[in-house]
Amino acid sequence: MAESVSFPSTSGPRLAGLIDHPEGPVRGWGVFSHGFTLGKNSPAASRICKQLAAEGIGMLRFDNLGLGDSEGDWGDGSFSHKVADTGQAVRFMNDSGRTVRLLVGHSFGGAAVIAAAHQLDTIRAVASIGAPYEPGHVEHNYDALVERIIADGEAPFLIGGKALVLRRHFIEDVRAADLREQIRTLRRALLVMHSPTDNTVGIANASEIFRAARHPRSFVSLEGADHLLTGRDQAKRAARIISAWADPYLA
């Protein structure tokens, strides 16, 4: 059974989360960061966290600003904001006595957890799934709107059935984000997971992340998976791999 929680974002509005509690003995705790506009109940977030919980790793998954059950306006956020709020989630868990050792991020969230780990002393292991090497890769989702947003400051943005507002500061922030040095100086164990048939974020991104990283680093090919991990047992398989890989870092 998942526990509903909320905690303040770095900008004030409260973020809604679910803690999937471990079944049986507790091996450790982690935080999951979802993709671009996907939310805590997306297939990847829900299935990965539930499977990790089934294997003894409790996970907090949460909706970013203005998404799902969280307060605020998504348009007020940015990549930097997502990174900072991932840190807020970890501190919330730590303050409740559930010390977080593991960060897991999917897609845009995979880039966010790499960046967030630098701010968090308790983190020992980071797993990215289908992550872009450059956070600005998300621009392909709204490239037709960029000129209008730069000129007018904002524009309506429809994605995945969600009606959002995209603002100039988001574009400027994500373009300025540079993960290379953060990957190189991560000083935590890094697991890079990616599907060779990912048509949303190409496999070359995983190669760039892995090349920039220093040991301990690992790469696992999610053969046959799509970007959103919607296929049968794809997310569960990813979670089982993370569970085994993370074991030395959870104690």
From TrEMBL:
The keyword Hydrolase applies. Keywords: Hydrolase. GO terms for molecular function: carboxylic ester hydrolase activity. InterPro entries: AB_hydrolase_fold, FrsA_esterase, Hydrolase_4. Residues 29-135 form the Serine aminopeptidase S33 domain. The keyword Manganese does not apply. SUPFAM superfamilies: alpha/beta-Hydrolases. Belongs to the AB hydrolase superfamily. This is Alpha/beta hydrolase.
